[in-house]
Amino acid sequence: MAEAHQAVGFLPSLTSDGAEVELSAPVLQEIYLSGLRSWKRHLLRFWNDFLTGVLPASPLSWLFLFSAIQLAWFLQLDPSLGLMEKIKELLPDWKGLKTTCRGGQHHGLRGVLAAALFASCLWGALVFTLHLALRLLLSYHGWLLEPHGAMSSPTKTWLALVRIFSGRHPVLFSYQRSLPRQPVPSVQDTVRKYLDSVRPVLSDEDFDGTAVLAEEFLRLQASLLQGYLRLKSWWASNYVSDWWEEFVYLRSRNSLMVNSNYYMMDFLYVTPTPLQAARAGNAVHALLLYRHRLNRQEIPPTLLMGMRPLCSAQYEKIFNTTRVPGVQKDYIRHLHDSRHVAVLHRGRFFRVGTHSRNGLLSPRALEQQFQRILDDPSPACPQEEHLAALTAAPRDMWAQVRRSLKTQAAEALEAVEGAAFFVSLDSEPAGLTKEDPAASLDAYAHALLAGQGHDRWFDKSFTLIVFSNGKLGLSVEHSWADCPISGHMWEFTLATECFQLGYLADGHCKGHPDPTLPEPQRLQWDLPEQIHPSISLALRGAKTLSENIDCHIFPFSHFGKSFIKRCHLSSDSFIQMALQLAHFRDRGRFCLTYESAMTRLFLEGRTETVRSCTREACNFVRAMENREKTDPQCLALFRVAVDKHQALLKTAMSGQGVDRHLFALYIVSRFLHLQSPFLAQVHSEQWQLSTSQIPVQQMHLFDVHNYPDYVSSGGGFGPADDHGYGVSYIFLGNDMITFHISSKKSSTKTDSHRLGQHIEDALLDIASLFQEGPHLKRQFRGLGEEVSGYRCGFVCSQTGDSETPTTSTDF
């Protein structure tokens, strides 16, 4: 998502003086430290993993094995074939602690200890064998490269073996020690794929120059840089992810707002209660229930095909996490636990406890606390109202100001940075309105992405935003994890607060208030006068960024995933080809396209780039714009383009992508102070079209058939380039796709609404190539322009029990 902007922006950050000092360290030292960090994380997780039975054998299996050995010993059988007797001889002889057992043999404390040691060694060997076998099985990726809908005999055998070795009841981190490490691709293959990806967007002269640079790189530098990467891949958990986090995110000196954060939306057509405090109470309680399940590892691991586990490492930092600014680079601070949330309302900061002596506060008690904040008439102190704008400032500026805050207002700063998460109670309503659906959705997206520049704490892992009419949203900082992680949490939150917790008929949370709870603590900021100009400067910069972003949201309801499936096509590839057609119509040319794909098939994997603008896609787009081409000809080219995109996506997911490998090679070259014109050119490229699909991961939490409006409408992010677009999309049920488009108003080349119209037209034009497509297109054209892509229905706020959601009513 927002990573495309950061991936472009990391290059200038390496040219600053501070970054050069850091990169002067020997590359072997950096590889050693990278591995050390990996092993430290594993050791910190070990005890918790052991207690929760993650090995994948349960600790109870050790007890069963020990009991069986003791029983065999009692029956005068020796399952150890003499090993236990040798272990006993090595143990000290505790006199007076021996008892006589059957057959006159002495079976004292030494016998018990010998049996325990033998059982432990045997159990450990079995567990290690299980790990090794499962890791070998999970290293197989042939299933990913098979044609859609087809499964070979080796893959069927592989699935059966994975089922056998995976255990019966895996928990969140069950598979972490069995996941394979991300492979380092062949540098020759990577360069070849790169040249193939840029061919459609370069002139013949520019391509020939790039090919010469690539050949020179392969001849002079590639083998040396590749050797260091292979060394790191053997030593560290992942050869690229820690550098990706550091250089793409934490070393970036740009503002987090728009550049690094992204947002997640509430239900599009439904608001379960219009009461702001009640919605906040249920949402905060649901989020903390998710954290409780996370701490107990009760969240099941994500499985592809219901069988292939994905890495769960990113879940660790969802809560109690803050990105702390530094002069040269930031760092991520994660606390083991936090029993409060930080709340911002009308420029005032509060600390709200989330637990009592009896445990987690009820939703009604939390609602009471939030209502107390809303009813508090006290004004914000001078400069306090705009204090949060500092988190939207350039990172080096915020780092310097934070030093003064840490001295003058340490307690207040710690309350915010040490909170489980941040809550913003906005004073304005948001969401879809029947008076102006298009403008209201655009304003809703803008409020979540940027707000007013001073009403979000962008450093926190995420900010829960509750608007005055009860609408919700999420603003997420990107460095600690990628979108599917926060999306998983958000799906749980929406489903839990609406369907499980519910609301009373008057809109309040269920339960009763607790009059014994102390008032929320108002945070006092002793702001020194020398930072006042910095706050004003940060506010101006944040407002400039906020006012420059152009957001456009539109739900496409003419067809969805079900139609695409009937066409026997990948839904993601279908949309990507439509985006290529729409962008070409919008700008009149092709451009490098960034699509994010996950690499969580590997330990600590994050993302890879799918370069969706292929020669096959360009051929299809040109055919669509050529009136001499027939529909069958266009359709044939479309299927070829879709197949190519699917191949690229699978290649990226299997660790054989282009961009992360080239990124890691570039970092090694900087450590070695080697100048590579080829790598420098690669990382100076601009992504004028950055795209991402928001996955729906837990459909079992929602009754899409009976209540189709009760599904999150996805989220969005800022553009990666000043003259580019950011586009995300989510499939809602089977018959709707919601698009989130962003661009910058300062650009004369882009217009989010214009691209939205092109996307709508492109989807309908592509659908018309198929047998039932013309009917869809005629149906849409007959609706008239007043529909403008929005549903002819509007759902009123629900005030009854959430188990019986209200249905939509017409405009």
From TrEMBL:
It comes from Galeopterus variegatus (Malayan flying lemur). The chain crosses the membrane at residues 50-75, 112-134. It holds the Pfam family CPT_N. It is a multi-pass membrane protein. This is Carnitine O-palmitoyltransferase 1, brain isoform isoform X1. The gene is CPT1C. It comes from the Eukaryota. Residues 183-760 form the Choline/carnitine acyltransferase domain. The keyword Transferase applies.
